Amino acid sequence: MADNGATYDPENIFAKILKGEIPCHKIYEDEDTFAFLDIMPRTDGHALVITKEPARDLFAISPGALAKVMAVVQTLAPKIKEASARRVLIQQFNGAAAGQTVFHLHVHIVPRKAGVPMRPEAAKMADPEELKATAEKIKAVLEG
Ligand code: 5GP
């Protein structure tokens, strides 16, 4: 979708994931937020936390909804055991010029390990079976 910098497209990919129209490997959901694995992970366990508010970016989301997204990021990130301890990169892009490709506010949780480089951006779709196994592992930790 073209980045016109303003409007929210209710048919964007993440809106469709929220509506259940596109499958994903969900790891967490509450009233205000939803989290799932990135389909082209930069590292194993790369997850996205999204708001349920129809907000395209940091400037469109309400402060309350943003606070809820960040609280989930804070809770979820150290539980993704692909991360060694708390070595986690948190990324959030606003606008195409800043690297945003899906215009529904989301925060990346990218587990990092010393000496293990990130894969290039949008380079390769993950094996769905591997994503499924990773999601199950994360959910087990969250539920445990
Ligand atoms: P950004 O907009 O912050 O650059 O990144 C969007 C992210 O969404 C990318 O990391 C990309 O791999 C991921 N992504 C794009 N389409 C899908 C999809 O259909 N399912 C999932 N799970 N992730 C997606």
UniProtKB/TrEMBL annotation:
Q: Where are the transmembrane segments?
A: none
- Name the catalytic site residues: H106 (tele-amp-histidine intermediate)
Q: List the InterPro entries hit by this protein, alphabetically.
A: Histidine_triad_HIT (IPR001310), HIT-like (IPR011146), HIT-like_sf (IPR036265)
Pfam families for this protein: HIT
* Segments carrying motif Histidine triad motif: 104-108
Q: What region holds the HIT domain?
A: 13-119
Q: Which UniProt keywords apply?
A: Hydrolase
Its GO biological process annotations read: nucleotide metabolic process
Say if the entry is tagged with keyword NADP.
Answer: no
- Asked whether the keyword Hydrolase is assigned, the reply is yes
User: What GO annotations for molecular function exist for this entry?
Assistant: hydrolase activity
Q: State the name under which the record lists this protein.
A: HIT family hydrolase
Q: What is the lineage of its organism?
A: Bacteria, Pseudomonadati, Pseudomonadota, Alphaproteobacteria, Hyphomicrobiales
